[in-house]
Amino acid sequence: MASDGGVFAFGNAPFYGSMGGRSINAPVVGMAADPATGGYWEVGSDGGIYAFGAPFYGSEPGAGAVQLPVVGLAALPSGGGYEEVDSGQQLYSFGAPFI
Question: What is the DSSP letter of 49?
Fold first, then answer.
């Protein structure tokens, strides 16, 4: 994965698409695989989620939606959602129970 959202599949890994070459509002800073579908999600530092071969459960895009830059993304083991985390350790849950 590249900061422009480009995804590079190697070996027998499937390619479902990417944001590479498309207009995005913020650099892509994380990626998580969907264990249910084999697809994946990318997250931008603004909280925007890009879904490829995986269901979209929502995101926090837009100016001011997140107070600090998002730095990571984790999928639920079931694939039924994901959580974003910002640099201040604030969690944003989508399709996932907030813990």
Answer: E
| Cα–Cα dist 65/83, whole Å | 15
78 in Cβ contact with 36 (< 8 Å): yes
Which residues on neighbouring strands pair with residue 74, listed in sequence order? Answer: 83
Of 31, 30, 26, the C-alpha closest to 16 is 31
Phi-psi region of 94 (alpha: psi -120 to 50; beta: other; left: phi over 0): beta
pTM of the model: 0.84
Please check the confidence at residue 12 and state whether its pLDDT lies above 90.
no
Pairing mode, strands 49-52 and 70-75: unpaired
Cα three-residue angle 95-18-45, rounded to 5 degrees:
60
DSSP 8-class letter at 57: -
Residue with tokens 């849950």: 93
Report the distance separating Cα 86 and Cα 30, nearest Å.
Answer: 11
User: Tokens 């107070």 label which residue?
Assistant: 67
